[in-house]
Design goal:
about 200 residues, alpha/beta, Dihydrofolate Reductase, subunit A, single chain, 8-stranded mixed beta sheet
Length: about 200
């Protein structure tokens, strides 16, 4: 399976609080929900289609628990294309603290997480998908485990919040393999990881 990440980001790279979040507000982040209103029917259809391609899902703990109590527990969300995909495919969580996951078909990856993810990637199939899970995505990139990145860029500058890429981190060359724009301004950019960039030389 190839490991793909799908992330909603603002133009300035923020991924925190793309939807309303009580946890973010309690932590002092007051600009949540910045992606609301920008998804037209075509963009939502694309997101549905991405989820349908998954053979399995990989989460960080925070995103896993948020998805479990929404897509996994709310009937109105579970009975959607995204909800059905999440509830009928294997789920993996990279966590050293989660011991008793309550969402069906969940496996906790602890210990040597990189090796465990490598074993998952070695299995036949289509995609091992990561949605959200910013801390996990950054760790996966640092460890060279990501094959493709789907960025849904929302036409807004948030001006604060956790960004997908930290101020300092690994450098990566990216090959653009697909892009499209939607009527309310969201753009999709699909990148394949391509080693390190080439830099100018004297």
């Amino acid at each position: 399976m190839k490991l793909t990440t799908t992330t909603q980001v603002s133009v300035d790279g923020v991924m925190q609080g793309n939807g309303p979040s009580e946890e973010d507000r309690m932590a002092g982040f007051e600009r949540d929900g910045w992606a609301m209103g920008h998804f037209d029917n075509e963009a939502m259809t694309l997101v549905d289609q991405v989820y349908q391609r998954a053979d399995a899902f990989l989460f960080g703990r925070w995103t896993y628990e948020f998805f479990a109590r929404t897509w996994g527990a709310r009937e109105d969300m579970a009975n959607t294309p995204i909800g059905r995909a999440l509830n009928t495919r294997p789920k993996y969580v990279a966590s050293t603290t989660l011991t008793e996951p309550r969402w069906a078909d969940t496996t906790v990856l602890s210990g040597d997480v990189a090796a465990a993810i490598g074993e998952l990637k070695a299995k036949p199939g289509g995609e091992l998908q990561v949605h959200g899970s910013g801390k996990l995505v950054r760790w996966l990139l640092e460890n060279g485990l990501v094959d493709e990145m789907n960025l849904l860029v929302v036409p807004v500058v948030v001006g604060q919040g956790t960004r997908l890429f930290a101020d300092s981190g690994p450098d990566m060359a990216l090959d653009l393999v697909d892009s499209r724009a939607f009527t309310k301004g969201i753009t999709l950019q699909v990148y394949r990881l391509a080693g390190r960039p080439q830099y100018a030389t004297d």
